[in-house]
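Quick illustration for those who missed Monday's session on complexes.
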Amino acid sequence: MSILTPPPETIAAREGYFGDFGGQYVPEALSGALSQLVDAWGDARNDPAFEAELDDLRRNYGGRPTPLYRAGRLSEEAGVEVWLKREDLAHTGSHKLNNVVGQALLTRRMGKPRVIAETGAGQHGVATATAAALFGLECTVYMGAEDCRRQRLNVVRMQLLGAEVVPVESGTRTLKDAINEAMRDWVTNVDSTHYLIGSAMGPHPFPTLVRELQKVISVESRQQFAAQAGGVPDAVIACVGGGSNAIGSFADWIEVDGVELIGIEAAGEGVGSGRSAATISEGRQAVLHGSRSIALVDDDGQVRPAHSVSAGLDYPGVGPEHAHLAASGRGTYLAATDEEALFGFRRTSELEGIIPALEPAHAVGWLLRHGRAHLGDGARVVLTMSGRGDKDVDEVVEVAGWDVGVDRAFGADTAAGGADVTVADPARQGEQGVAPGDAP
Ligand SMILES: Cc1ncc(COP(=O)(O)O)c(C=O)c1O
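Prediction with pyridoxal-5'-phosphate bound:
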């Protein structure tokens, strides 16, 4: 028996495995709620009314289908043809609503009046608070105190939407700690509460459920690519935190030969630096947050802190299906550093007029720096722009030290139009940061 084989007591949940990864490693108190969720999802999938309501909400509330956009100037700089799947244009500004609307419908089917969620970047929290407002559910969102600081805009958005935001002060005060607190709440309030997990992770059925709800990204992009570009791309690229946008971006392509699936994790200060969140690149098999997958662990098997400039990727685990795609060789998992992400953030803004969230900026940064060498000149790629970057602007200015000239814009020149907001070149200022036009 391989050490990857699940222990006998979990064999019953075999359907929740992806190869050797997945399962249901939870306290007894939660197994009833997970079975209820499996049943609710099974019923809903066979109910045309559920599908019709989900489809209507996706279109008329959520703004789907999101466009597939050929990013000409980014393509020129990258040396490969870049098609952006514009999840940043979906309602609430990221892919997170795809999952949340489906789970909110299931919450209603299960007759539960309350949802809880964890959030890192705040995008899943905002999406959950949005769906809670829409369905009249009580909503509590757990968020690491460090993430509350760096994603303040989203904290205010959640509060405006009527959610209670609970800052979590334990551990590294980031996503992992928020999940721990949400799990505690769920165990205590399981009869009234659905834990609306925000990524393709956690105990079965969450990784499958979230994958199926996010699959709409790749179902659309496959049709759109065929219609707009013709044929299939050489690669589909997405950033990976817990893995929901990446698995949704990959799902409909998995069976398509010749399409490389590239997940980009956050390398923080570099793979091997001790300050990274590149779970698949650096991690080992472990059980974390209810399933067997890969996690960043120390020599004693304890989960070690992750680091990334982006709150949404700052997580020491990854969903089990990604662990399986990596182990089986179907997926390629690479990493981009904080600096590469900031470079991607800046160049997407300057070249395309799209300010990306820091999470997908990792994928863009990797593509600009390494895409041509990895894929070959002129390769065609679909890259999921999983969210917009409004939430990150303050943090980026602080971290990168960029002078955006706000004082000038609102100072003496205001009478002359006040639109004089320039992005100074930090290289010229001798500041640490990423200069526009840095060679890949
Ligand atoms: C815009 C955006 N992209 C990606 C992620 C990472 O999560 P996941 O790997 O589940 O897509 C987040 C997480 O908050 C996010 O806000």
